[in-house]
Amino acid sequence: MLIGEYSHSIDTKGRLIMPAKLKEDIGESFVITKGLDGCLFAYSKKEWQNVIDVNLTGTFLITKYSIPLLKKSSNGNIVNLSSEQVVLPQIKSAPYAITKAGIEMFSKILAIELMKSKIRVNTIELASVKTNFLKNYKKDDVIIGKMMEKTDKNMPFGIIKPYDVYKLIKYLTEEDNKITGQTILMDSGVVLDINRKK
């Protein structure tokens, strides 16, 4: 992902003028989304497509090949994972947030389509979860520790742990559960807290 700033302008034909270096880095094919305060965000087509392939197409394919097995089960359940960024968008995250919103709608449609087969479909919107994910990007354990500590302090009920997610999934997949077609926000109170402070 390219990170940087450039004050853009439009030429007389209504075209966006981009600096040569940026155009060289981003390639001939790219996606531009509107950001905050009149900003535009540019993503290479490859970067945009990669996020769609992993999040949206990946979810679709796993679901497609799982449904025949779930139909044979006495307790068929699908629980997809989304992000609080669907209800609390963040800058520079358009591809990610859009695919997560797509997963939520996909889950609702599936819940209707699979109801006759007694398969329940729900989605969990997650805020920050304490995992080793950041180690892929930052090798310094001290920096990661400080980031997690800051995140923990900013979440009213503390950072979410993998076991918290497991417990909710376990509840949603219990045989006598009647919940389907729902999106459940597990954010440790972040969205409410931000709205409260407005």
Protein described:
The protein is α/β, with parallel strands linked by helices. The protein is 44% helix and 17% strand. The chain has six helices and seven strands. The chain has helices at 20-26, 45-72, 94-113, 141-154, 162-172, 190-197, and strands at 9-10, 16-17, 30-34, 40-44, 76-83, 119-126, 183-186. The chain has a three-stranded parallel sheet with strand order 5-6-7, sandwiched between helices. A hairpin with a 5-residue loop joins strand 1 (9-10) and strand 2. Helix 2 (45-72) runs parallel beside helix 3 (94-113). The radius of gyration is 20 Å and the shape is globular. The relative contact order is 0.12. The model has no long low-confidence stretch (mean pLDDT 85).
Task: Give the topology, please.
Elements: E1 9-10, E2 16-17, H1 20-26, E3 30-34, E4 40-44, H2 45-72, E5 76-83, H3 94-113, E6 119-126, H4 141-154, H5 162-172, E7 183-186, H6 190-197
Parallel strand pairs: 5-6, 6-7
Antiparallel strand pairs: 1-2, 3-4
Helix pairs in contact: 2-3
